[in-house]
Amino acid sequence: MFEEQGITPEGDLIVNVGPQHPATHGVLHLVITLNGETIKKVEPHLGYIHRSIEKMCESLSYRQFIYVTSRMDYLSAHINNHACALCVEKGLQVEVPPKAQVIRVLLDELTRIASHELWWGAMAMDIGAFTPFFHAFRERETINDIMEETCGARLTMNFMMPGGVMQDLHPNFQARVKSFIQQYKHKIGEYAELLTGNIIFKNRMKNVGVLSPEDAISYGCTGPTARGSGVSCDIRKLYPYEVYGQVDFDEILETGGDSLSRYMVRIREMQQSIRIIEQLIDGIPEGDFQAKTKAVLKLPKGEFYQRVETARGELGVYIVSEGGTTPYRIKFRSPGFSNLSVLDRIARGGKLGDLVAMMGTLDLVIPDIDR
Amino acid sequence: MLNDELRANISQLLTNTSFEEGGEWPTLTLGADELLPLALRLRDDDALFFNYLFCLTCIDWKTHLTMVYHLTSTKYRHSLVLKVKLDRDKPAVESLSFVWRTAEFHEREVYELFGVDFIHHPDLRLLILPDGWEGKNPLRKDFEDPINMIRL
Q1: Looking at the partner chain, which of B70, B102, B151 has a beta carbon nearest the beta carbon of A338?
Q2: ipTM (interface predicted TM)
Q3: Which element (helix H / strand E) includes A329?
Q4: Is the Cβ pair A55, B138 closer than 8 Å?
Q5: Which of A65, A230, A291, B78 has its Cα between 20 and 30 A from that of A41?
Q6: pLDDT band at A1, cuts 50/70/90?
Q7: Is residue A111 a contact partner of residue A77, using CB atoms and an 8 Å limit?
Q8: Which three-class secondary structure state does DSSP give residue A286?
Q9: Which residues of A204-217 are buried (b: 16+ CB within 10 A; e: fewer)?
Q10: Is residue A234 less than 8 Å (CB to CB) from chain B?
């Protein structure tokens, strides 16, 4: 199928990485042109896990389509559902009860920690450090257990719905989150000892895959990838939704633009997520966890756009409604798709061995890119 | 810049502009030939400074296609939506990949899923669909696949 192999007329070697390769964490296929060990070009081939979710959503009702999006960025399943629910609420002009807002934000932030944990473990393993993977998964398991108790699932939770959340929190939720936070606070210090402060690790990450702020904006990079270059793009700060406007947290910015900066942004973001959870966990308001909505939802004719900050960056949901019970057209502006497009730019001139470090810190989730 | 101010400012750039009513952001419908010059001015004008294309997509309206560009400025935080109507049988529009680099990937996606031809695109090839894909463009409304499409 692909003619791209062997040696080019200029004497450059063409190497295929993937679609089945452990370092791509999914079915991503890269065709790399190499001059010696130096990368001349990286060309991604996508579509190995393309399910055409946008087309699928066109025949699903406004209650149903939300749950397909859990399968996009499966590490931020809650946040994807959240974006869709917010977009439908924008169209319906439904006011979400305060309790549901707090529950949503709490679950979002737990998801963000779990996602960054998995990224941290997997990225360290790509670089060659195996131990962090086990540390990361231990903490991630705890979060998954908490999710399982409340939502009934561990990965594709499907807990958000238009108007609120599916059901009330489990009675154990508060106590378990608090005890998790208590032990987790010390873990980030441990991570620093284990990996962040490691000189071999630092040397592998520093000045690798440098992304300038101008390129980050022009290529549409968002999330920790852009914030590692000093571009302020945290949707939770810039366009606050739910209770993000009322809680106190910092937008993490690093100015290096290299792999180490992107790494540090995510590590520090986990601490900020803890801060948000700590502020909210004791004050979950009383009341309904759901607003009253009609059984069959119909969005008025028009266009609705909602963006949220997932663990990987800005997720945009664009619904075009013709007034019916199903969306006429849906577009998911996924963060991974734009973040991947910058790979060629930052990899050129680098070494093949560093490609894994660059890909690791872009935090690519392939189903999110292919949709 | 506020939405009203933005509307007034952009009206000066074009001779006959028509903003759509409603919507979250000012929405402008253009002819296909007006797009590239306006895009360059929107990006390079210091008072407008639309440097970030955050969404690029297409809608099939059965009678015609509409390209939709969502722009924002990371400096002033104002947003704008551009729409371009295209002929459904032979859709073609100037590529914006030299104005905003993110358009390169997004246009490739629209090219294969909607069949829009982007003039002067540096690398217009299939991205998601398998090589050698023949047949209709999957996101068009008249696309049918009896085996793989699920209808409820």
Answers
A1: B102
A2: 0.87
A3: strand A329-333
A4: yes
A5: A230
A6: very low
A7: yes
A8: coil
A9: bbeebbbbebebbb
A10: no
Q: Assess contact for A233 and A227: CB atoms under 8 A.
A: yes
Query: Which residue out of B27, B53, B54 would a mutagenesis test of the A interface target, given it has the greatest number of A Cβ atoms within 10 Å?
Result: B54
Cβ contact B152–A59 (<8 Å)? yes
Residue type, A46: L
CA distance B29 to A247: 39
Q: Which residues of A326-338 are buried (b: 16+ CB within 10 A; e: fewer)?
A: bbbbbbbbbbbbb
What angle, 0 to 180 degrees and rounded to 10, lies between the N-to-C axes of helices A355-362 and A259-281?
Answer: 20
Question: How many domains, in total, are found in chain B?
Answer: 1
How far apart are alpha carbons A266 and A224 in whole angstroms? Answer: 6
Does residue B128 form part of some domain?
no
Q: Which domain holds residue B33?
A: 3-91
For A316, which of B55, B74, B151 is closest by C-beta distance?
A: B55
**Contact (Cβ atoms closer than 8 angstroms) between residue B73 and residue B51:** yes
What confidence tens digit (pLDDT) does each residue in A59-70 have? 888 888 888 888
Cross-chain Cβ contact A218/B22 below 8 Å: no
Per the listing, tokens 């594709």 go with A156
- What domains lie within chain A, and their CATH numbers? 6-370 (1.10.645.10)
Asked if residue A371 lies in contact with residue A57, where contact means CB atoms within 8 angstroms, the answer is no
Q: Which amino acid is present at A81? A: N
SS3 call for A41 = strand
What does the pLDDT average to over B90-100?
Answer: 89
Q: What CATH number does residue B76 fall under?
A: 3.30.460.80
pLDDT per position as a tens digit, A256-294: 888 899 999 998 898 899 999 999 888 888 888 888 888
Q: Does residue B8 lie within any of the structural domains? A: yes
List beta partners, residue A337: none
Interface of B with A in 14-43 (CB under 8 A): 22-24
Q: What is the mean pLDDT of residues B16-28?
A: 77
The answer to whether residue B147 sits within a structural domain is: no
Judged against a pLDDT cut of 60, whether residue A174 lies above it is answered with yes
Q: Give the residue from B102, B115, B21 showing the smallest Cα distance to B69.
A: B102
- Partner B contacted by A50 (CB < 8 A): yes
For B73-129, where are the E strands, in sequence order? 79-87, 92-94, 117-119
A363 touching B, CB under 8 A? no
Using an 8 Å CB-CB cutoff, list chain A residues near B59: 320, 328-329
Q: Does B123 map to a domain?
A: no
Sign of CA dihedral B104, B106, B111, B117: negative
A302-322 b/e (C-beta count within 10 Å ≥ 16 → b)? bbbbbbbbbbbbbbbbbbbbe
